[in-house]
Amino acid sequence: MASNGTWTADELMHGKAGDRHDEPTASTSSSPAKGGRRFSTKKLKGKGASADPMDWGLPGHLTDEEVAIFMKFRDEVEKRGGEFKNTVYSFGDIEGEAFCLTRWLRARKFKYDDVISMIEEATEVRADARKHDFYPDPSEALGCEPSVFQAQYPQLYHGHAKNGCPVFISKPGILNVDGMECITTLDGILKFHWHVMMHDYKMRLLKHKEAHPNFTRFECVVVIDLDHLSTSQLSQRALSIVKTQTAIDSVCFPETMNRTLVINAPRFFSMTWSIIKGWIDPRTAGKIELISSRKNWESRLRELVDEEQLPSDYGGKGMATTETLKKEAPEGVLQQHHELVYVRTSGHCSVDVPAGGELEVKVFSRATTEVTISVVDDNDKTKVYTAAVAFKHTGGTDENDPPTSMVITTQRIAGPVKARVKIESKGSRFSAAGNYMVACNIYGK
Predict the structure, then answer these.
(1) pLDDT above 90 covers what percent of the chain?
(2) Whole-Å CA distances, 282 to 33, 36, 54, 68, 99
(3) pTM of the full predicted structure?
(4) Contacts for 308 with CB less than 8 Å, ≥ 6 apart
């Protein structure tokens, strides 16, 4: 590769002298863990093609025809420039021309016209978010603190895989749809995802590239933990949340999935997957492994990720995901407690405030029935810390109308104390008031 980052046709087909790929692919990694479903390798046709399907379309593995399409695409990107080029190089020039352009080409199987159409669509999709600098403030994007959101749908980046790709862990098995509805909107989730991709994931890639110049795979190793997933959780609302997050990636950040491990899958999902797998392109299916046995998925994760980079609750020696998520708390917060309270005529939740701590209570809801919310001593109900405050949702009822929120405590409540947050409906006893998300922050004095 020349000093300006341009690869020659011969290098695109056969690679640079001394080039190597660090990824433990299906043909180079240890044999699959028992219970894991892997894609078998096969010889691909064409000069320069790799024997490993996972290397198809990567620099150093292109055919003559693919090189010609690459050159044409490169010229078009430079000719158009502007937002078209910015869309292609969404992670910046540091990704490297050859690796960036082949990501887009692989996404549409080197069909030139389809690639151009995809980028034009992606440029339109990201246009509004770009006007807002892809929402640098996550709280403003969501309409609530990220820690409140993460408590309803735990998702986090945690270290890097052996090939340098960031490791992303998602826990849809414990997604609290009712809680999400109380605190944010689908539009808020969409904005937050733009923030994550352009201000979190992107920065992780760039920092790793700066520290490891040979890192070239701007991709992610994904762990989808389905523990506790039930059929009742697969509601239209839940699927809309997941679909909202993946819709952006499919068109704006193509070929950024390095490998996905679906773990702790219940039996009903395993049966569904056997059907879904038949609908997916074999190369894409080859990147997805379904492993239900904890022993087997821990073993497979350790093949892909060093123990020091892997959370302790996923078989490694790194910080547990629960502890990592606590770092999302606002500055000065020592502990957090989030609880969804359903109110028919009344409801409550309790929280322990330790000595040296001070409690702040915030409530989110879309319920339009007026309620009163107070904070009392859980052991002595006559001891009132915050007198009853009137609360009701005053906004619209569309799914993208923001919910109403209010800080209930006029001043923070000093510990040690066990506080009870009481919610009492002012509506008819024959109708339910609805759901309320109670977010408790305990600050240090």
Answers:
(1) 74
(2) 20, 16, 10, 25, 22
(3) 0.87
(4) 159, 316, 317, 318
